[in-house]
Amino acid sequence: MNYHEEYKYKLRTADEAVKVIKPGDLIDYGTFANQVVEIDKALAKRKPELKDVYIRSAARVYGPPMIVLSDPQGESFNFNSGHFTLIDRRVHDYGLCHFLPILFRECPSYANYTRSDVAMVSVAPMDEHGYFNFGLSNTFTRAVMDIAPKVIVEVNPQMPRVPGGNNECVHISEVDMIVEADWNVPPIPEIPISEVDQKIAMLIMNELEDGACIQLGIGGMPNALGKLIAQSDLKDLGAHTEMLCDAYLDMWEAGKLTGKRKNIDTGKMVFTFALGSKKLYDFLHNNPSVASYSVDYTNYPHIIAQNDKVMSINGALEVDLFSQVASESTGSRQISGTGGQVDFVEGAYLSRGGKAFLCLPSTYKDKNGELHSRIKPTLSPGTIVTTPRSMVMYLVTENGMVNLKCKSTWERAEALISLAHPNFQEELIKEAEKMKIWTKSNKKPTACQTAS
């Protein structure tokens, strides 16, 4: 049987494909931009006949899953996500999505501790050699398929075919059923760049050097930094990142991102998933300058550290005077996930000449317009620690930058208070005194300043 005959033999409608799912099954739905759409609709129609179907996913970008909308009481489907987007968060607020704590780099190894009865993922069309490419989301898809007795692919001609470093595809011989679809891969709206984002990005620009290898998280500040780099005289930058976003495209088009000085994957933009504009998705299609890897390669600290001058730039929501960093929850409300923050904080620190920056605005306003500090004596009750204080390197607000490595608790308190908004500094000092992390030798900030 040739590949095209095998394709026809395995081709099913979405309604036919979901007949394999039984009560109590554990189903993997794909991650980020590779989550199934037509199969989700078909499975939702089976609600009356199914119970206790456990669905696992990460970072929904297509709107609420139809299985959730069809089952508002959660009687048939139990939806779980390893990383929240705005969509996951809203579904969670209605009690219809549960968070799955993960350390992203470990996900392929979780196959040793769990099962997957059915793995389903959206893919690019089959090539002449019988391979379906995972496109925008490599992550841990291959590892899930390896343990699932049933593998279903949803073929979408609009999914880019992204060249890989490893684990970027599955062969038709390993697929049980094929479902054809045709839906727009959703672009992610560009996050506006605020004045605070711009100030933080400019502080980080001062730390960048020619030949640096850049990792960016998501948000307005990385967008601002990408634009500043594009306008700078920096050269021969590299990319080794968890997420590829439009900021990298800005750097590439300006000729700043060549990857020539990388020690591994020289000349390649390495990533495990991509989210951004349609322009970015078009850029990735069949582009030999990029390489999609599974997350146990992109996010493993000792692989990250093989490149010199790794500059890891990620966001945070809150930090306390002990320098514990919260980047995924506000109180007990899950906002996003651990993601790869701790992976790249460690990897950048281990890199020769590397630096890891965790960035946050010093304040926020509540719904009543009242100003609050994001630098707090202790984290708000219920808030999850993402990066422990022992791993934190640089912290950055619009008021300055501090390096906390090899600093005592009282030195950290002083440095962090220097980053806070002046309106909150005296109050923070009083709280530091109560917690006995303020000494007579501590200096009170006299103005917004940068501490080294």
Automatic annotation (TrEMBL):
Molecular function via GO: acetate CoA-transferase activity
Catalytic activity: butanoate + acetyl-CoA = butanoyl-CoA + acetate
Annotated ranges, domain Acetyl-CoA hydrolase/transferase N-terminal: 3-186
Positions of CoA binding: 217-221, 317, 340
Keyword Methyltransferase: no
Keywords: Cytoplasm, Fatty acid metabolism, Lipid metabolism, Transferase
Active site (UniProt): 242
Superkingdom to which the source organism belongs: Bacteria
Pathway(s): Lipid metabolism; butanoate metabolism
Similarity comment text for this entry: Belongs to the acetyl-CoA hydrolase/transferase family.
Function: Coenzyme A-transferase that converts butyrate to butyryl-CoA.
Protein name: Probable butyrate:acetyl-CoA coenzyme A-transferase
